[in-house]
Amino acid sequence: MRRMIAGLRPLWCLLLVLVATVIIGDLAGLIPAPESIWWVPGVVAVGAVSGAGLQIAPRAKPHSLQLMSCPVRGEWTSLNTPGQRLPSHGTRTLGQWCAVDVLKPTTESTPPLLHHRLRASAPEDYESFGEPVHAMATGTVIRRRHRARDHRARNTWVSRLLMVTVEGLLRTLAGPSALLGNHVVVDHGDGTVAVYAHLQRNSVLPETGARLRVGGVLGRVGNSGNSSEPHLHVQLMDRTRLSTAAGLKLAWHDVILTDELDARLAEFIAEPERSAIKDMPPMGEIFTTPWAEEPGRRE
After folding, report:
1. Which residues pair with 229 in a beta bridge?
2. Do the beta carbons of residue 137 and residue 216 sit within 8 Å?
């Protein structure tokens, strides 16, 4: 039942657009309202049902922890991570139950999370931007997008506010692709599917149908889609369609935790919750991978 309701996501989005159109049209006097006020509860009810429908997500059957290779090389830190809690992003929708966000550790030149300037930071100002992204496991590319622009960070108060309100809503209504930005979806052939999101424009290397080996470079870190600053978002699912997919438990077998914390993320750092996956880096902890950077490989 949950998958069926989640699969109706385009319908819920369409109904919300219609509700918003009716409300705005009535307030602006562009739509003649009926004399009876009973249409108001009806519109509110449709909006409430549609909003609730967008929050319903399927849950995967009981499964073991999926161990895979880390998709980045060198020194990184984690932000929204299953090493802190589940669901890692606060929702199960769109297969995000065990999603991970990673970015390069803070340096003296890293822009602040928020500042009072009028103009937000450019993606090129961040160390994460342009870093190679590697396949976590062998699989086949079944979907890709590579032409979305890399927008500026959302690190001014105005841009952050617009992101969590207007921009976030518009991207949600536009569909998963608008949220993911440039991305690659890889089917591993064993019932697991990986998504690599917010990639750099025109950096996606493999074509749809290409076969990737573990460690092969598939793109570079960007700032496309619903992203506040350049970072990599990865997640593991049980289906190829995001709206009906359930997230799967994921851990990287080749990371080394340093017990060092990223100073810029200090305000978000807390003790991991009971639901956290112990093998994954918790919020704000810097980790490394022993892999050397290697060129893209395909079968």
Report:
1. none
2. no
In a 13 Å sphere around the CA of 142, the CA atoms on its Cβ side amount to 15
Q: Which of 111, 112, 96, 101 is nearest to 76 (CA)?
A: 101
pLDDT in tens, 229-239: 999 999 999 99
Reference 98, options 236, 198, 224; nearest CA is 236
> 13-21 contacts: CB < 8 A, separation 24 or more?
13/50, 13/54, 13/172, 13/173, 13/175, 15/46, 15/47, 15/49, 15/50, 16/47, 16/50, 16/51, 16/54, 16/173, 17/173, 18/46, 19/43, 19/46, 19/47, 19/50
- What amino acid is encoded at 225 in this protein? G
Instruction: Look up tokens 């978000």; give the residue.
Output: 268
Query: What is the rounded CA–CA span in Å between residue 92 and residue 82?
Result: 12
- Tokens standing for residue 105: 């550790």
N- to C-terminal Cα separation, the chain: 39
Place of tokens 């993320």: 265
Judged against a pLDDT cut of 80, whether residue 292 lies above it is answered with: no
